[in-house]
Design brief:
- The protein is 34% helix and 24% strand.
- The protein is an alpha/beta fold.
Amino acid sequence: MATPLSLLVIGGANLDLTGQATSALRAHDSNPGSIDASAGGVGRNIAENLARLGCKTQLLTMLGNDFGREVIIQSAQECGIDTTDTIISPIHATGTYLAITDHDGQLYVAINDMTIIDALTPEQLMSKRATLEAADALVIEANLPATTLQWISQHYSHKPLHADGVSVKKVAKLKPILGQLHSLKVNRDEARCLLEQSESMSDRALAQGLVALGVNSVLLSLGADGALLCTQNELVQQPVFNSEICADNGAGDALFAGFIAAQNHDQSAAEQLRFALGCAALTLSSAQAVSPGLSPSAVINTFLTD
């Protein structure tokens, strides 16, 4: 691998609380079970994947002065993410996702409180301009406020900007800055939202339509059908790798991180896509949103060695 990329991820970091009942859930009652607290969030998960893939990774996020901050900072330190420039809010709670699952692991109900990300405004980032300038590339995600996304694209379009669409509800915030993006990761529904197209549009046409709007590289996640990578000059598609599926949360974050990390290799677009899908497959086989076993060698030895 070449000299590690210096990547700055700007996005959300959450405290994930999961309560799993030991028997069938009874509504309106106290249920015995187990409770787990872990670090999560799209931006944070992408940052951990990048760090595990050998990239020099820094996370710029906003946290509350609470227990959630402690969990997230400790998790970052353990996997090699630099959180030096984390912004601590004295008035907001750390973003929190609370999920209740039945005894068989099926989601019963969930509540999320992510309002703190709305406070990560351009005014907050202005004090971190030296950090933004020092990075080789920036990774952003659509949980950020629209004004923040536009400020970053306006002031740092001279650097590679990698963006994750996150969800159909949030991806529209990226529409004004598509022409400044080096790479964009979306799924079919998010691509249709950006292009304002119906379901009749082919995967190839979706990716090419986003490239026509100025995106340099479009990574289109196709779920069980794999992924498609489209640039001005190439279009390649790769099916998923066969792997034991333990949980499907986090696979998209690993896919995008794998693609970003692979750009530091002297590889073709097809090889970059295969590496990214290998990262996703390894994550699918883990119960955690980010596989603790993720590494370049693990991906190569498990999926890319003939």
